[in-house]
Design a protein that fits this description.
Elements lengths: L12 E4 L21 E7 L11 E8 L13 H8 L7 E5 L5 E8 H4 L20 H4 L1 H8 L2 H4 L13 E3 L32 E3 L8 E3 L10 E2 L16 E5 L11 E5 L4 E5 L2
Length: about 270
């Protein structure tokens, strides 16, 4: 995540701000609250990660905003039915987490990715929850205002209070990763059949905090990355090699200071607290 707004001619997408190329009515609403889900990031996929065909070049990820996550989702059937009855984007995937909060991803064509920024839709008339702050000041400003100091340091300065305020994404290849192209595997819950996926850590002697070590090849790995070695805060979820792992500040979420993984081939989502 860069410390400046996106340059759409040379960056690989953006964090916060607004999604591109969709109509307002295609913006996914939250079936729990009836408000628009918050746009977290839009990512231009490298060519070898375009697993849905050469015409699908990017994805936009949406989430329940942090100020709507407190203690677990309480479903209102009438809101859910009204949201699900609305027209949707043709490549919309919806996901829920362990607390029943909502997430969504849109697979985008090249023309959509290069299109104009979308306008958030109005909430349902049935919506009774408090209005999420991002709808008034933008996702970047809403996150910055509530973020701990270490997360605020990801920004060059306080973001503007504007729905369009975003930060660019730059990709660079990992120098070494023996797990590139392999599905992640938890060392404590091996897959069947097992793979040669390698943990990023080891122990010198008996497993204990003082004997814990990182492999040299893992020491320069960025926390936010596409594929390869996964470093979740808790157990490794079963996913394909085509996933993105990211932190709370990569769009402004409440993962209990943890991190998340989105498998955009299988459209599976998981997060765990730190």
């Amino acid at each position: 995540m860069l410390d400046r707004p996106v340059d759409r001619a040379r960056d690989q997408g953006w964090v916060f701000g607004l999604p591109p190329g969709i109509a307002s009515e295609q913006w996914p609403l939250d079936p729990v609250t009836g408000y628009p889900l918050m746009h977290g990031f839009t990512l231009l996929l490298p060519e070898d990660y375009r697993v849905h065909g050469k015409d699908i070049v990017a994805l936009s990820f949406f989430a329940t905003p942090a100020d709507h996550t407190d203690g677990g989702a309480i479903d209102a059937p009438e809101i859910r039915e009204a949201v699900m009855a609305r027209p949707s984007h043709p490549r919309l995937s919806r996901m829920t987490d362990i607390l029943d909060y909502e997430y969504a991803a849109l697979l985008l064509t090249k023309s959509e990715y290069e299109g104009a920024l979308a306008t958030p839709p109005a909430p349902l008339a049935l919506a009774t929850a408090d209005r999420p702050r991002w709808l008034d000041v933008g996702g970047a400003s809403a996150f910055y205002g509530a973020a701990p100091p270490f997360a605020q340091k990801m920004f060059a300065g306080p973001p503007r209070a504007d729905l369009t305020e975003n930060l660019g994404i730059a990709l660079k290849p990992r120098a070494t990763d023996p797990n590139a192209g392999k599905p992640p595997q938890d060392p404590h819950f091996p897959r069947n059949p097992p793979s040669d996926y390698q943990p990023y850590y080891y122990f010198v002697g008996a497993p204990s905090p003082e004997n814990y070590r990182l492999h040299e090849w893992a020491k320069d790995h960025a926390h936010i990355h596409l594929g390869g070695t996964m470093r979740p805060c808790q157990a490794v979820p079963e996913m394909s090699p085509f996933y993105i792992e990211f932190e709370e500040y990569f769009g402004g979420y409440n993962f209990g200071t943890g991190n998340a993984q989105l498998d955009f081939k299988q459209m599976k989502f998981d997060w765990a607290c730190g």
